[in-house]
Amino acid sequence: MKKLVFMLSVMLMSIGAMAQNRLSGTVTDAETGETLPGANIILEGTGRGSTTDMIGRYQVNRIPAGDYDVRVSYVGYQTTRSSISISADLELDFSLDKSLLSTEEFIVTATRAGQTTPTTFKTISKEELNKNNLGQDIPFLLNYTPSVVSHSDAGAGVGYTGLRIRGSDQTRINVTVNGIPLNDAESHGVFWVNMPDFASSVENIQIQRGVGTSTNGAATFGASLNIQTDTKREESYAEIDNGFGSFNTRRHTVKAGTGLLNNRWAVDARLSQITSDGYIDRAFSDLRSYYLSGGYYGDNHVFKMNVFAGAEQTYQAWNGVPENLLQTNRTFNSYTYENETDNYQQQHYQFIYAGNLDSNWKANAALHYTKGAGYYEQFRPNDRLLRNYGIQPIVIGGETIERTDIIRRRWLDNDFYGATFSLNYISGDGRLDAILGGGANRYDGDHFGEIIWMRVAGDTDIRDRYYDNNAVKDDRNIFLKATYEVVDQLYLFGDLQYRGIDYRFVGINNDLRDISGFQNYHFFNPKFGFSYEAAKGKTFYASYAVANREPVRRDFTDSPLTEIPRPENLQNIEAGVRTQHNNFQYGANLYYMKYNDQLVLTGQLNDVGAYIRENVADSYRAGIELDGAVMLSPKWTLGGNIAFSRNKIAEFTEFVDDYAAEVFQQESFTYTDTDIAFSPNVVGSAMIDFRPIKGLEISLLSKYVDSQYLDNTQNENRKLDAFFTNDLRFIYKISPRFVKEMEFTLLVNNIFNELYEPNGYTFSYFLPGEAAGGRELVTENFYYPMAGTNFLAGVSLRF
Predict the structure, then answer these.
(1) What is the pLDDT of residues 115-139, one digit of tens each?
(2) DSSP characters for 408-472?
(3) DSSP strand pairing (665-675 vs 682-690)
(4) Structural domains counted in the chain
(5) Is there a single domain that holds both residue 237 and residue 193?
(6) CATH number at residue 521
(7) Are residue 519 and residue 371 in the same domain, yes or no?
(8) Sign (positive/negative) of CA torsion 482, 487, 491, 492?
(9) Model pTM score
(10) How many CB atoms lie within 10 A of CB 797?
(11) What CATH number does the domain containing 159 carry?
(12) Which terminus has fewer CB within 10 Å in the chain: N or C?
């Protein structure tokens, strides 16, 4: 009996030792008591941890009895540690104090909006980005944020993609990475295809709609995207992500990091490959990228080096699908030459410093260099005169050949480098927060074309250049912005920026014109506003901001230098309220964006037949944007946003080619009070998240985009139809013994097989006909269709 009792006692003790306990609680701001969603709770040395949910709650399960050190961290707050002993389920709350300096956060502070900044913005966390990150580009990961419309040439979100915010395209959206400009200095565009899987190395993205605050690089004329790359992790980690989907889409990503070594050093790395056949015929993508970051993290100073690069080959789908084929052949691609591809690679180097100079002063500085080189190859059939390539007619056996098949490559080989800085002063009483910042950058780009093959060769050699020119652009800016608390909770904001540009061209353009010349600009961009922090997490704000923008490369190269279009001017008013309180958050804002001399395509031709953009004197965008989310229960969360807008040009003159006339000419038509192209009056999204059991989340994601016109004539025959799409997402997380976490994701896009096109273009011309005047108007519309029902699936292993 004694032996039996002893054995039972030992078994009970063993069972007790093996018991799995739960640690749970809430993380809040020590000063305000507001909960902190997204805070990290780690049991050091165990690999176990959790992240707080929307109402600041966390839960760590299956913890063996014992003593542990718990670390709690949140961006912008001081990390706290506690020693605890667990022998049963334990409820433990944490309160965090705001950090005087979160050094990595300060890297992007100068170009970001803060809680008291009187402008309209939204910050998307890494967790939100990762939910949809299965290989599609960043524009599609941001598709459900307010006023965003995403599009894809290949129709599947991989390859050439883009987005519009409030109707403004990518060339009018300023993008920075750690405060460093990303937009192409000449076209002002951002080519996400050059940065495949970059979202896997992003900590968060802040979208400022409207002019926003002063930033570096291209002028903000619709919105800005401020991207912060991965910040350091305290613990070492490794992650493997593999995915597959429709159209033979594949994604393979490996990530690893050392965590803090000797409490000072950290290294993070990522390697990615994404391939896809695309929805459109032959529109394949073969994309590769890497990201490497190493840093020294002192008590008051951080030094960080980031190196990231991307290489892409994509088959061209730039021509779109003709309107008459949309119903019968939505995947049509007019290109058939096997190597009609775009080939480009780009390497980015960033050296960043951030630090505390003393209790009142912080500093940030960065050096950067980007190297880009690549070409697109085209087969040109027997449809262009040899003299268009600077080649004399070829005489063979008495026959003069003026046309022949040609394969050409058009090259870009460019360097972009410079420096950015910011100096932040916070007064002892905390009422004044001022930042002096700016940057100086140079772009040096070679543009040239090569002939690599001719069916009938004349006096030419392989890779002969038929055009060659160089552009150098210097862009410098300096800004001073400050927020001052005049009375409790009432803040005044001011932001003054000077931006200067010198732009020089030398050489022959692809139409064989000499484009040599020089332009310079000096812009002053002031911004003013106020915000008021009321009770229960409400912030009311209003602001007035001015932005000026120089013409893009094509405006210089396609127009005679004596007739360069005027710079554009934007005056922006924003006013609204935003609230974040426990289990709900919402925002509402009104905006008015008044453009002077906005540049648009009118159909007007230059002296060699290229279409040019012209200034329209008076145009505007005005609207209201609403967004919010509420956690109804631990199982249900509802969210959504909707924007209603009016986007008008006071007077617009269209030029139409007339091939019916005896001598080619253009006829003009003037319109008043017309809609701005690609500007839907309504854009909305809705998200429903359901968590039926632990680890499983099911989400329905819906998107509505109103009809859009393809040009500024508001012609009903030249438009994109409204569309309403629905995606279904499943995420299931488990924590088996052999890995820290295992995550399965399934994203079913367009579950109701909606046939829609978010992008396209149009042109019209007169041909001889039987209509009045002996001619008829022909309009050709081309569209970029998106795929019907398709899926992406992924498996992530985290160690």
Answers:
(1) 899 999 999 999 999 999 999 999 9
(2) EEEEEEEEEEEEEEEEEEE-TTS-EEEEEEEEEEEEEEEEEEEEEEESS--S--TTEEEEEEEEE
(3) unpaired
(4) 3
(5) no
(6) 2.40.170.20
(7) yes
(8) negative
(9) 0.88
(10) 16
(11) 2.170.130.10
(12) N
